[in-house]
Structures are given as structure tokens and as C-alpha cells.
Amino acid sequence: MPDFEVRISGSGGQGILLAGRILADALGHEALNVAQSQSYEPTSRGGLSRADLVASDARVDYPLASDLDYLVILDDIAATASNDLLRQDSLVVVDSPLAELCELNGHEVRYLPISETARALGDLRSTNMVALGALTSLAGFCSQDKLLAAVTRVAPAKLHAAATRAILKGYAITEF
Question: Which domains, ranges and CATH numbers included, belong to the chain?
């Protein structure tokens, strides 16, 4: 598998960093080398938050995302924050209520009901896991089994059942 870069972006309090850690673990179990970095504004709720991953079957030479292959946008604060890092053929997954805020001409964009799906599950806080399932389904860079196993290794035990349900729903919303 060639090198690729992923960014999951949203706001503080959405579990962006946890989603990044879970994905990094899953990709590592796919025999990929992964460098993960994260950034968040000092405000704990509402500031820009992002988790970046650089993955390769070879050694990762530069650990910071600079040319995104995949981008997830979960909050209006992240709607245009990563545009300058997108490749022409990037896949961008956007929570559908944010469609009008994003300026993503020339990219493969999938507007999906991510937060709506989490709300239907009864837990808006699972938006990050719905997005993780949707991204993984569309990108195909890791198996569903490895992603779900990563949840049990990385997430707090009290979140395992809810995260698993949300990831599976994320896979399901991509099948339209």
C-alpha cells in the first residue's frame, strides 16, 4: 500500500484525538508504519481540534501531514481549515449539515449524515466513531475487524459498546 495521509478535524470535545488514536492503532495492526500527531486549540470545547496520521508500508520519513489524501470535517470551525493541504484527488468526508460552509471544489467529497446518525443512536458524542466507520469504509485502508479490535485496545472500556455500534453505523451510511 502506498503512503497516505489522513486528517480528522472538528472541535474540542468531539473526541477527535481518540478517533485518531484508534485509527492509528488499527493501521498499525494492518502492518503499516504510522506517525500520529494532533493539534488542538487551548479552549477545551469549541476550538479547532485535529488528529493527523501519516501511514506507509515503509518507514515514515516525515511524521507531519503535509499533503492530505483523506480529510474528515465534523465541525464548522474545521470547514476550510485544511483546504491548503488537500491533494487534487483527496477524499473528503463531511458531516452533511456543514455542506454549505465547505469550499471543496475539485475533490471527491462525500456529504454524509454523520451527526444525525449519532443522534439517532442516542449519543451525539459518538459522532467521531460514526465518522471513523464511514471514513474507513470509503477509504478501504483498514479492515472493519481491525478497526473494531482497536476500539477495545484504545478506548476506555465504558465506551466499547457505544463506539462499536457507532462505527458499524458509519460503515452502513456509506452504502447508499
Answer: 4-172 (3.40.920.10)
